[in-house]
Give the backbone structure.
Amino acid sequence: MKIRYNAPIILTYTLFCIGVLFVDTLTGHQITRRFFMVYSFPVLSDPVQYFRMFSYIIGHANWSHLAGNFSIILLIGPLLEEKYGSAKLFEMIIFTAVITALLNMILFHSGLLGASVLLPCFWETKFLKA
């Protein structure tokens, strides 16, 4: 059996999320709170807030949160990346992350983190034309 790295966006994203959660666990979850979580009522003068608008999809609360999100993403993501291409999938991921972050900051009074916001992005790709 030959192993291929056939979905570079999804697989790299997965490995990066695992690495961030591992380091975050070692630091008492300080990294996720600082860099990988969107908060309501943001301080727009803080430059880190703009980074958080797309980086929050990398942070996860714990290992079960990460496993739950990636059990779906690793099933569907590689198929979509093969069908639509890495560049198109990357665009969809970033667009979905930023729009969801903006909506969360405006409409809700809670923090936001994790890859679960991407699941509707994967679902909606069935309506895209290749």
Observations:
- The chain has a mean pLDDT of 86.
